[in-house]
Amino acid sequence: MKKFRNKTGIIILAAGNSSRLGRPKQLLQYKESTLLKNSIYEALKVENSFIIIVTGSDHDLIEKELNSPEITFSFNSNWETGMSSSIVKGISELLLLNPDCEQCIMAVCDQPFVTSSVFESLIFESSKRGKGIVASAYSETLGTPVLFHKKYFQELLELKGQEGAKKLLKNYANDVVSVLFEKGNIDIDTEEDYLQLISDLSDKGSK
């Protein structure tokens, strides 16, 4: 098994079956690549980090498409029970790979405008402010990507069902700071979302 000494684990949640879209959103074409590959590409730029991809539905297809020694796949056989099972799987894998990991970043595969600078801003803000949770801010809410200090790993491991990590943001509001993530509100859930994204990129490219 691979072992890492890196300080930050980046966990990309990519286990859902894209029921509203009707095909795996992870493999949608985007920027001469795919949505998931784009998230991975940006995460790989972050120094002193290692990357875990939590797969579930369509895992064979996704892992075949993304065969790379630089990332670790972790298959969540319970993906249908909700996002919490993927968070638990990701943290469990992280602790296997690096029990001394200082912090992790939870990210998703369908935010097309995520960049390495977003990840790096989370890390920088946590170090600067001494806070245990740093979330991305957009559309008057806090969301992914979100950084958690290792002191929260046990509570992340205890999440159940449909509840996501936002529960911790509410419970520990005094330990939360945010960084602005422009266009973080744009994610791909439906065919309309995807067509709008492609249309916007096409319009931008023609100007």
Automatic annotation (TrEMBL):
Keywords: Transferase. Residues 11-172 form the MobA-like NTP transferase domain. It comes from the Bacteria. Pfam families: NTP_transf_3. One of its GO terms (molecular function) is transferase activity. This is NTP transferase domain-containing protein. It comes from Flavobacterium procerum.
